[in-house]
Every structure is written in C-alpha cells, then in structure tokens.
Design brief:
The protein is an alpha/beta fold and about 325 residues long. The protein has 13 helices and ten strands.
Length: about 325
C-alpha cells in the first residue's frame, strides 16, 4: 500500500505537465482511492483471486490490458515477478517498456553496514523512471490527496466538538514486527501528551490490528479507534483534519504525509535513509536511535527478519520521554 501511495506525487505531476496523455494505472481496487479526481487516469484493478491468478492469469491480464487499447509505453514501477512477466509480454508485442531501478545493490550495502549514506527517495526513483521514458517533471511536494466532499464532510463531523483540543492521529503498528515500537511505550507517550494539553487521539490500523487498537483505546482517556469504521478515503480525510500524526514506518505514515498532515515517524530496524521516508516531511520529523549509537541500524530495508542483536535495542532504547521532548522541541506540543 505504501509503495502505491508514493506513486501519487509522480502521477499528479505527470498529468499536470502532460495534459492529454492517458494513463491506465494497474493496481489493486482498494488503492484506487488515492487517485480519485485525476483527469485522464483510469484505474485497472486485476482479479488476482480468480481470472488473473497464477501464471496463466498473468497471460490473461496481459491480453485484457491489450484489449483496453494501444499503449505507447509501459512503465514498471514495481519490478517484481508478476510485473516482469507482463512487461516482457508487452516488449515482445512491440511496446516500449521502461522499468524502475530500485537501487537494490545500494540498499544491500546500506543494511550490510558498508555504506551509511542517504539513498534516493522512492518517489524520485519513480520520477526517474518516467524521465527515462521521455517525460521530464518534478514530483508534487506537499498535499496530494484530496478526498471526495462526502468523505471530507464525514471527517469534519467526526471531529466536530474537538476544536479546542489537540487532535492527534496514532498509527502504532506496522506490517512487520521490526518496525513496531512496543505498545506500552506508545501508551505512555499518549499519557504524557494528554497531561500537557487536552487531547483527542484517533487510532488508525488494519483489520487484523483492531483488537490491539481496542486495548489501547481502553488504556488512555480521549482515545477513539477508527479501525474498521471508515473507508480508506474517509481515513485520509480524517488525517487531513489532524494537528499531527505519530506513526511507525507504515502505509499510514505515507497516507498522512500525502494528506498534508505533519507526521512524526518512529523508526527501528528500518531507516528513512533507504528511501522510504514520509514524502515532503522535514528530516527532523523522523525519530530513531542514532546510527552512531547503534551501527547495526538499519538492518533491513522493508522490516522483514529478526533482530541481529536479539534485544531489539533500536526500539527498546527509544523512550516515550525522548519522543515527547522532540514533540515539544518541534513546537507540536506547547508547554506553558
């Protein structure tokens, strides 16, 4: 989901710079909300559970895409097995194909500790792919997501009556355990924020996280879990109304940033220097134990695997007090 969200600043810039060019964007149906109201863009959602499942399904997907019309160029922003096969079929049919350079060697050197340097952001890698296809432009910076009026109105109604309080979004979980701050630390941080200023907290997460979010909801006053209550578009509308968000390295981090919200992201085994930081956010909004203190960071690009040290120091050593002090330093919380 995060990878798809990060394509939005590039797609938005493309249609602005090149009006009249039609895009067929191949992605899952659930992610179509990111691309609403973009002129000359059509979402094509494959049926990965039936018609387009497996190897034969990929061939059918190729034929179905061909049936939508003639393509002048195919741009692969994913470079995985399924997209490799599809782009090969298009190339064999005579269509020009351009594929992303994910910088896999650079990323392996980064997590191997050989070269600790900030790599190109994924959004810039996407833009570079379009440039190699002959389309030169700069990705959109700042707000990219504009939910429908109904979603925006629902979010405004949900937050009505909270204008005199601080409205803070919390997305405490991520797909992989190495990217998650212990829940007890997040609860302590929420308590500290509440003690400084009356706050409403809004919890975000996937369906498989609802039970855990409910436990957090019970732990701190003024907390509401939105898990399972809203569509993706409605969640993004709520994010757009918040004072700021606190997230892990997750799709919620990207969604909030693209919704124009200030995002404080907490990093453990992964690191924004690998190119997956919240787009357009100040560097100081990314919090984690310094590489000089923990040279093993980052030990993974995507969060998979297990802690090499065995003590999960990158997350265990980051205290709620440190995060709270940073929030005060950034003037996100004003202490009288």
């Amino acid at each position: 989901m995060g990878d798809v969200a990060l394509s939005l600043p590039v797609v938005k810039a493309f249609v602005t710079k090149y009006p009249g060019c039609e895009i067929v964007f191949l992605t899952r149906k659930a992610f179509g909300s990111y691309f609403r109201n973009i002129p000359e863009l059509t979402i094509y959602a494959p049926d990965l559970e039936a018609r387009h499942k497996g190897l034969m399904g990929i061939f059918r997907l190729f034929r179905d895409l061909q049936g939508t019309g003639r393509f002048d160029c195919v741009i692969d922003l994913h470079d995985v097995l399924r997209s490799k096969v599809i782009r090969l079929l298009f190339r064999m049919s005579g269509t020009r194909v351009v594929c992303i350079d994910k910088g896999r060697k650079e990323k392996n050197e980064l997590i191997g500790g050989r070269k600790k340097k900030r790599l190109k952001h994924t959004v810039e890698r996407y833009a570079d792919t379009f440039r190699r296809a002959g389309f030169d432009f700069e990705p959109v910076k700042g707000k990219c997501i504009y939910p429908e009026d109904d979603a925006w109105a629902k979010a405004a109604s949900l937050l009505s009556g909270t204008k005199e309080t601080l409205n803070v979004g919390i997305a405490p979980f991520a797909k992989h355990a190495l990217k998650q701050w212990p829940a007890g630390k997040m609860i302590r941080l929420m308590e500290m924020i509440s003690a400084a200023k009356r706050t409403h907290f809004w919890l975000f997460g996937g369906k498989d996280e609802c039970a855990q979010l409910t436990e957090i909801e019970k732990s701190v006053p003024g907390v509401v879990s939105l898990c399972g209550r809203l569509t993706i578009e409605e969640e993004m509308a709520v994010m757009g109304h918040l004072d700021f968000m606190i997230t892990m390295d997750s799709s919620n981090m990207h969604m909030a940033a693209l919704a124009g919200t200030r995002v404080i992201s907490i990093w453990g085994a992964t690191d924004p220097m690998a190119g997956f930081g919240a787009w357009g956010q100040p560097e100081e909004y990314s919090l984690g134990i310094s590489h000089s203190v923990l040279p093993c960071r980052p030990c993974t690009v995507y969060g998979r695997g297990k802690c090499r040290r065995g003590d999960f120091a990158c997350m265990e050593w980051l205290t709620p007090e440190q995060v709270y002090e940073k929030l005060v330093e950034l003037s996100l919380i004003k202490v009288s």
